[in-house]
Amino acid sequence: MAEKGIEIRLDHVTKRYAGQKAAAVDDFSMVVPAGEIVVFVGPSGCGKTTTMRMINRLIEPTSGTITIGGEDALRIDPDDLRRRVGYAIQQAGLFPHFTVAQNIGIVPGLLGWAKKKTSDRVDEMMDLVGLDPGEFAGRFPRQLSGGQQQRVGVARALAADPPVLLMDEPFGAVDPITRGHLQDELLRLQNELHKTIVFVTHDFDEAVKLGDRIAVLGDRSTILQYDTPDAILANPADDTVAGFVGAGASLKALTLMRVRDVELGQAVTARSDAAPSTVDLGDEKWLLVLDQRDRPSRWVQLNELRRVTSLAGAGRPVQDSVTLQSTLRDALEAIVNEGGRAVVTGGRGEYVGTVDLATVTDVVQQRRANS
Amino acid sequence: MNVLEYVADRWDRLSLQAFLHVSAVVQCTVLATLLGVLIGVAVYRSPAGSALATALASTILTIPSFALLALLIPVFGLGADTTVVALVLYALLPIVRNTIVGLAGVDPAVSDAARGIGMSRLGVLARVELRLAWPAILAGMRVATQMLMGIAVIAAYAKGPGLGSEVFSGLANAGSANSMNQALTGTIGVVVLALLLDGIYVLVNRFTVSRGVRG
């Protein structure tokens, strides 16, 4: 159903503003592979937004060529081009006088879709970004939270099913927690949709999390390094890139790895209705108590286990756990919170294993040895 | 004869005058809105153009209405033409100024998004920018209408239509029978009609401004 991404190719693209000596974008060449997320990251004013805006010709390049899926973008009528390229920006840029449904349906409307097809599509899009159509379709943007507005912005950009999506700091104006959720959702969407996405941000952590590739840009949009996040973290091309990667590259690299990629440990477990005397801890000092649906509930220590008559209320509750999809950085956080070992759960919240500090440090050292 | 008896006695003529008064003001407001919005759209992107348009419109407003009519009569003669020109000129300032303010107040991110998702330049103006500036434009129209209700009275001096002729003939024949009634009827009539029109603006605002941007 969904149209997959197509390749974007920029060839010797230059933007020069009248009356300015230096070019704003100087001889920029890049291939954005089909179906990948490429993140432009760089300091404010480096020309990353200008570069992105030349792809849908909100800014006309002074020279050079841009092809989208093999077609010369400079020969397409700009309005037509923009209807075929999704566009999402900071603070969503929603039309305040339109309802959520009208905002999402605007590009299909411009493309002349039938009313029924458009309204079906709007419902589908709202489901896709996690907004209940019944509740939100008739609302106006000002009646939404910042995160909900951004979701509508993404839904609007995707409504006409464009193969290419341009996103200019779309999550820049929301709080860090909402931002994390929105990033997760974008990755989930991308897993289904496989669009070609050009994403502009000044936040390197966001770039590492989202990008299949990252282009670190310097002044006049010169490409300092264009590579996978892994490669950039391991081998920054020069001091400027290294400065941008910033301190804690090892910690950042942990966001690239998922809990499912490492070998899990196992704790001794028992159901909460088991008799404490039947539990054999072996060499372990802690027992993990599971509830009736195998979800982790409490940790019980060896000497306490000897004293209690029921496991139901014994020990201390499990505070923080991670899933197989969590990043190792999240896992590290949970390990620190839990005091050395964190519980890993599966899709239904059931216990699947544990991850500890040694596992994480091993992974970091292995990465360093490989690069 | 007191005022009420006077009104009842001359109801036919007075109601026609009242209708003509309102009709002239409403038509001139609409005409001024078309003109004012066009001017606003033409200049709002340029700070210098905006300043110039606002300054010109303000200058017109500083000319006393009597003087303006006196200036217009040699050109357009006595009657409706002169009245229409004078009223439209006076109505321009609030409308031009509010159009410029309204359009300039549209969040650039919203216009950028509209362009970015493929709206034509005209589409952005008609479907986004003017729609968002509409509450301001409507407020300008409301001020203009209130102002014109009063100025239209003076237009009777140029033999224009409306309740102004009651006021003028009342003043001209001061001391004679019914002169007080005439002046009072004209004045109170204008005030009552102005309040009615203002009420209509509240309704128009309710039905034409999106709930998403209503205060």
Automatic annotation (TrEMBL), chain A:
Domain of life of the source: Bacteria
Keyword Coiled coil listed: no
Top EC class for this record: translocase
GO molecular function, one term: ATP hydrolysis activity
EC number(s) reported in the record: 7.6.2.9
Family note: Belongs to the ABC transporter superfamily.
Key words of the record: ATP-binding, Nucleotide-binding, Transport
Protein source organism: Lentzea albidocapillata subsp. violacea
Protein name per the record: ABC-type quaternary amine transporter
Domain ABC transporter: residue ranges: 8-245
TrEMBL record, chain B:
PANTHER family assigned to the protein according to its UniProt record, in alphabetical order: GLYCINE BETAINE/L-PROLINE TRANSPORT SYSTEM PERMEASE PROTEIN PROW, OSMOPROTECTANT IMPORT PERMEASE PROTEIN OSMW
Compartments in which it is found: Cell membrane; Membrane
Pfam families: BPD_transp_1 (PF00528)
Membrane-spanning segments: 20-44, 51-76, 88-111, 132-158, 183-204
Major location (coarse): membrane
Keyword Transmembrane helix found: yes
CDD domains in alphabetical order: TM_PBP2 (cd06261)
GO terms under cellular component: plasma membrane
The protein, known as: Osmoprotectant transport system permease protein
Domain ABC transmembrane type-1: 18-201
Bilayer disposition of the protein: Multi-pass membrane protein
Keywords per UniProt: Membrane, Transmembrane, Transmembrane helix, Transport
GO BP, sorted A to Z: glycine betaine transport; transmembrane transport
Family that this chain belongs to: Belongs to the binding-protein-dependent transport system permease family.
Family matches, as InterPro entries: ABC_transp_perm/SBD, MetI-like, MetI-like_sf
